[in-house]
Amino acid sequence: MRPFRYERPDDPLAAVALLADDPTATFLGGGTNLVDLMKLGVARPDVVVDVARLTGRAVETLPEGGVRIGAAMPNSDLAADPVIRHRYPVLSQALLAGASGQLRNLATTAGNLLQRTRCVYFQDVTTPCNKREPGSGCSAVDGWTRHHAVLGASQHCVATHPSDMAVAMAALDAVVQVQGARGPRRIPVVELHRLPGDEPQRDTSLEHGDLITSVDLPDLPVTARSHYAKVRDRASYAFALVSVAAVLDVHDGIVGHVHIALGGVAHKPWRATIAEDMLRGGPATTDAFRAAAVAELTRARPLPDNAFKVPLARNVLVSVLGHLTSSAGAGR
Amino acid sequence: MTPGRAGKGHGGVASPAVGRDLPRVDGPAKVTGTATYAFEHQLDDVVHLYPLQATVARGRVTAVHTGAVEAMPGVVAVLTSDNAPRLAWADDAELAVLQSDAVAFRGQLIGAVLAETSEEAREAASAVLVDYDELPHDADFPGDRSRLYAPAEVSGGFATDTDVGDVEAALASAAVTLDQTYATATYHANPLEPHSTVAVWEDEGLTLYESTQGTHAVATKVAALFGLEAGLVRVIAPHVGGGFGSKGLPHAPVVLAALAARLVPGRPVKLALTRQQMFCLVGYRTPTLQHVRLGADADGRLSAVSLDVVQQTSRIKEFAEQTAVATRTMYAAPHRRTTHRLAALDVAVPSWMRAPGECPGMFGPEVALDELAVACGLDPVELRIRNEPESDPQSGKPFSSRNLVGCLREGARRFGWQRWDRAPRSRLEGGWWVGVGVSASTYPVHRMAGSSATVGFGADGRYRVAIGAADIGTGTWTSLTQIAADALDVPVERIALQIGDSALPPASVAGGSSGTNSWGSTIVEAARTFRDKFGDHPEDGDEVDASMPPNPDTERFAMHAFGAQFAEVRVRQDTGEVRVPRLLGVFAVGRVVNPRTARSQFLGGMTMGLSMALHEQSVLDPRFGHIVNHDLAGYHIATNADVGTIEAHWLDEHDPHVNPLGVKGIGEIGIVGTAAAVANAAHHATGTRVRSLPLTPDKFLL
Ligand SMILES: Cc1cc2nc3c(=O)[nH]c(=O)nc-3n(C[C@H](O)[C@H](O)[C@H](O)COP(=O)(O)OP(=O)(O)OC[C@H]3O[C@@H](n4cnc5c(N)ncnc54)[C@H](O)[C@@H]3O)c2cc1C
Ligand code: SF4
Fold it and tell me: Which class is A225-326 in CATH?
């Protein structure tokens, strides 16, 4: 591993200043992704700025409604938080579907949002990768693509974003609070992650040195229910092949509030806006769910190894919406 | 104190030690972290080694730019083919490390950095720039079939092909036929403890603290490579964190460590592979394609069995897995044919992995039998029983014992097999298709030559029993203690066992499920010799050596262990996710020395078989030539959540022919047949026949 300087500043502004001065400096959360990438030679920071104790580690209820999640809150604590479990079960379920107990104890909210893709070529410095080394080429497009994107990819990169938590947050319309060198700002989670386009090296819309300080979740309609389902290659401890986070409110058989996000299918948590628009105001029936899922997925452009993700995403989406309208989903 | 035994009848103990579930004698050391694994030997003045690996699949290294690297912090030396010591023997291309500038596969060793800390060594290694003259490579399996070839023989010294009777004619006239191709993936053993070595040259001798299944095998091979007398290489391995075959033969890393240590005489050189490096340097199980053809009469009696296997090897060293060999012995059919063909590719060198041959080779045929059972409308248990041979179909010899039918019947009874409707896709519970499947298991009784043991008596009244055997987590420390206690007719407390060191009397490798048979027979012989010479009241310092005695019965009988595995599988209707709530195996393995460690071998084998069925698959990208999912996040091994109830039982089998102990070997049979049982159950559940492993959700998605 490359020698690096370790800093633990006392306040967020000092942390931001440390990065502003140094293009090779980076923030450290739980380190469960960054340290692995440093060992692999993928991340090569000169300065590591530990922010795991700098921002909140708890869930606060906001006076104007909704909750604020500290950026440094461990994934395991967030999943177990009574307010989250009660009001946002989709988020708790998504967290518990990710990684392992040990990793979740270390992983932070911000670190989870900003974890890098698990594309095997990205992680292997001996193979070309546009995300790691812009212009070197994408090894995945003509390579092993089982875990790659079917939606929104470009010829320059077909990677997926690996986070489960971020998919739930996308469905919840979460908003990220950022402290940058030029002051604080708010970025909706759906705008945080980008599609690769011709700049696959940029995972997010953040600038170098932007510190995530918290994530806000707005209130949901009181009667809305939410749920997360994930399909993976083994029963536990594997990244999603496909996942679905959904928030649904149905009155008299008619869909009101509906937010759906798909995981494992794109470079970002994929808000299924086409499906949402089709469902909103219409009947909450299996046929409608299926038609909406199919419509959303007409945009899919699968690769040789991952065509199965399209029918899989369709089925999981129908199943999650079905669950949320059944009596079994009544526990919100 | 009274020397010798306390009295007749097992030294005053009520029952013999063999057969008792003695807790592991090395257990307390392991759970308290005091058992010393190779890398953990505390030595002074250590130098750390980090390998340099080829980033092309074929060609030549034209330059290794070491200048800037030699000046990096902590760097002691950079080893390349330019300054590597010459080996005395370089015929084995896998082990001829740094003896030329040729690159034969991606990931091959092309050098190493020695530094004061492991971090410095790794960082310096990442800074080394290498120039290559790259040549076109071929890493595509199976690729162009026309370049397949027949090896002279397959692993274990078996014939490459067999052909008895007239398979084609029998198939042509059979009432029911089956013709399908099955595929198993590439697998990496992935023991928890990485392959590690500490190498130190002192005077003209070399000491290796090594994670190995065979201290003598490594000592002998390394001595030959360096042109040393056998006694000048000492290999020490008291505890080994799993091997599954990948530590059975010496591989390139130990040679690299010994070469590097030459550059710093007197200083111990430490090497532990990363998980990624374990995917290129320590062997793997070849992928296989298995073309199975069966012919039977309407009652399911087989007239023809044909298995044609295609698999890969490395172009620089042939390893021909004996995939079709088990089929030669399994079922009675007058017309039988088996073949092995290899594609020699520019890829890493394949090698042993738990039950080489039987494990992949029982997948295709045992799924094919299930398909035949469906075609004949027969219960697959009954189909197997109907095709039970009287004697070994291949050699014509009688079996020393064969209780496959007993295992099938006992397994079916315990599993509740008869309660299930045989029709596929007949049970849907809460969105999950549910079904059950069965497969046979088998593993040969191997007795490996080359072991001897010392038995001595000490002033403390204990018997020193020494043999260079290895405990790779299987329980050798415990089982050999039990065998020695009974052989000397004393309580286990009076045995001081010594293993895991090539300075001890030679022992064959811990492989082929042969340890208890070979080392146990040797200890029994040494104990007998000791008692013959010194009687029941030996004196301090009395000692004998004995070698494993020949067993004439090995020529007269076919010797194999058998088993039957049953699986219950659930496949989610809308996602294709596969779960295995229940596995049950019944085995006939002769005498069981220690039920506790034996059960753990069966459970471990079946879990590994489950993992093969559902998850494991090394993905080779033919454009690059290496495995791209080369870590444990990418190479999936069953997690706790994937493993439901596993039951392992065994029949009370007495086989007087295999050896004086009556043991057959249990380390490998548990992994044989599991994947077929799971695949057969998945078909019974869903009606979808998946012939290519692993059984991932996409294969059941409609
Ligand atoms: C074997 C394995 C399996 C896994 N399985 C899953 C899975 O199934 N599902 C899943 O969702 N995840 C999975 N993970 C990933 C895991 O969730 C992430 O590693 C973890 O969430 C990252 O959090 P961290 O705090 O450790 O981040 P770090 O590794 O510390 O940081 C990650 C990135 O975030 C940046 N960062 C950290 N904090 C801030 C901040 N406050 N502001 C700005 N930037 C910041 C860092 O600079 C770095 O770039 C798995 C990981 C492993 C190793
Ligand atoms: S998919 Fe993206 S991350 Fe993967 S190799 Fe291509 S550019 Fe790199």
Answer: alpha beta
